[in-house]
Write a structure and sequence with these properties.
Largest sheet: 6 strands, antiparallel
Strand content: 25-35%
Oligomer: single chain
Mean pLDDT: 83
Low-confidence stretches: 53-57, 185-196
Distance between the termini: 55 Å
Radius of gyration: 18 Å
Strand order of the largest sheet: 1-2-3-4-6-5
C-alpha cells in the first residue's frame, strides 16, 4: 500500500483520486508496492486483462498487462514541468499479421493520446516509446511458432485536479492493445484485424 506518514496533502489527494478511478470492467486492477527511489512520494497500480473464463488476472495476464505509477517530487518540477509525473507501461500479444503492420506502433501511441484527450486529462511533457516485437520459436520452442507483442512505455506531467482521468486513459489503452473494443467507437486491434481480413478476401 502507499506510504501515509509524512505525505503532503497534494499527493494524498491525488493518490485517492487514482484509487477511485473507474477502470474498465475487463481489467483486474490492484495497488502494488510503489518505487521508493524515483521520487519522495509515489503510488503504483498493476492491471491484467481478464481472459473471460473466471480468470481475475491477479498476476501479469497473458492477454495484456500494465503498470501505472504516480510520482510526486516538488524538487523535480523544473524538469517535469510540475511536481507530479505519471509513468505507465502497457503490453499485449498480437497476431503476427497485425504485428507486421508498419504503422501499428504509431496507432498504439495515438491511442494513448486520444484516451487522455477524450477524458479531458490535461497533460504536458509527454514522452515514450511504442515497440512491436516479432519472434519465432526454434529447437525445443519450435512448437510456439511465430508470435508478436506490442508495448507502450510513456510518461507525462498531469495538470489540473482530475488525476482519475489519467488512470482511466491508461485503462483504455491497455484494453485497446489487448484487442478489446473502444468504449467510444474508435478501432481496436480486433476491428483493425477484421478490416484487414475483409480487404484480403476482396482482393
Amino acid at each position: 500500500m502507499a506510504r501515509i506518514s509524512g505525505e503532503p496533502r497534494a499527493f494524498r489527494e491525488a493518490a485517492e483520486q487514482l484509487r477511485g478511478a473507474r477502470f474498465r470492467s475487463e481489467l483486474h486492477v490492484r495497488e502494488i508496492a510503489a518505487p521508493e527511489r524515483i521520487a519522495p512520494h509515489s503510488v503504483a497500480f498493476a492491471a491484467g486483462v481478464s481472459g473471460g473464463r473466471g480468470d481475475d488476472a491477479e498476476g501479469d495476464s497473458p492477454y495484456g498487462a500494465g503498470r501505472l505509477v504516480l510520482l510526486f517530487d516538488p524538487d523535480s518540477a523544473e524538469e517535469w514541468g510540475g511536481p507530479f509525473r505519471i509513468v505507465c507501461y502497457a503490453q499485449a500479444p498480437l497476431e503476427v499479421e497485425i504485428g507486421i503492420d508498419p504503422f501499428i506502433a504509431d496507432v498504439a501511441w495515438s491511442w494513448l493520446i486520444d484516451a487522455l484527450e477524450s477524458r479531458g486529462a490535461r497533460y504536458s511533457y509527454a514522452s515514450g516509446t511504442a515497440t512491436k516485437t516479432l519472434s519465432s520459436g526454434f529447437g525445443t520452442l519450435e512448437s510456439q511458432g511465430e508470435g508478436a507483442q506490442l508495448e507502450v512505455r510513456a510518461s507525462w506531467t498531469p495538470e489540473g485536479p482530475g488525476f482519475a482521468a489519467h488512470a482511466e486513459a491508461w485503462s483504455e489503452l491497455l484494453c485497446l492493445l489487448a484487442g478489446l473494443p473502444h468504449q467510444e467507437g474508435v478501432d481496436s486491434l480486433g476491428a483493425r484485424r477484421a478490416r484487414q481480413r475483409a480487404e484480403k478476401a476482396g482482393a
